Automatic annotation (TrEMBL):
The lineage of its organism: Bacteria, Pseudomonadati, Pseudomonadota, Alphaproteobacteria, Sphingomonadales. Keywords: DNA damage, DNA repair, DNA replication, Hydrolase, Magnesium, Metal-binding, Mutator protein. Its EC number is 3.6.1.55. This is 8-oxo-dGTP diphosphatase. Its cofactor is Mg(2+). One of its GO terms (molecular function) is 8-oxo-7,8-dihydrodeoxyguanosine triphosphate pyrophosphatase activity. One of its GO terms (biological process) is DNA replication. It comes from Aurantiacibacter rhizosphaerae. Residues 1-126 form the Nudix hydrolase domain. It catalyses: 8-oxo-dGTP + H2O = 8-oxo-dGMP + diphosphate + H(+); 8-oxo-GTP + H2O = 8-oxo-GMP + diphosphate + H(+). Belongs to the Nudix hydrolase family. It holds the Pfam family NUDIX. It is an enzyme of class 3 (hydrolase).
Length: 126
């Protein structure tokens, strides 16, 4: 399964993370926002759609820069492609009822993160 996520940075260099809802895979853990790529979408288009659906933020596909990827093997093998972008302002709303926040790298690293998101956060800090 192909999944996309966004490392969105504010002007202070903090990263936007959201908390997965209880009852979902990795429920309660923190992650980069994003979601599954549908069969008729490119990864960038899927990420724009997911960010709009989850946070009410519209991004232009061209503003997304490919960064890293992570893999989760198993019955539900997942490849997560991470993109980066700068937050240019706007109102963010957890439309699915999820908690979200801006975190300095050190604070983000101390959160209970989903395993692939922890890997990707480490790559961002290099």
């Amino acid at each position: 399964m192909l999944v996309v996520a966004l490392a969105l940075f504010d002007k202070s260099g903090r990263i936007l993370l959201q908390q997965r809802l209880p009852g979902k895979h990795h429920g309660g853990l923190w992650e980069f926002p994003g979601g599954k790529v549908e069969s008729d979408e490119t990864p960038r288009v899927a990420l724009v759609r997911e960010i709009e659906e989850e946070l009410g933020l519209h991004l232009e596909p061209g503003s997304l820069t490919p960064a890293f990827f992570a893999e989760e093997p198993g019955d539900r093998a997942v490849v997560l492609n991470l993109y980066t972008a700068s937050f240019e302002g706007g109102e963010l709303v957890g439309r699915d009822g999820q908690a979200w926040g801006w975190f300095a790298h050190e604070d983000a690293a101390n959160l209970p993160l989903a395993p692939m998101d922890r890997q990707l956060l480490a790559f961002l800090h290099r």
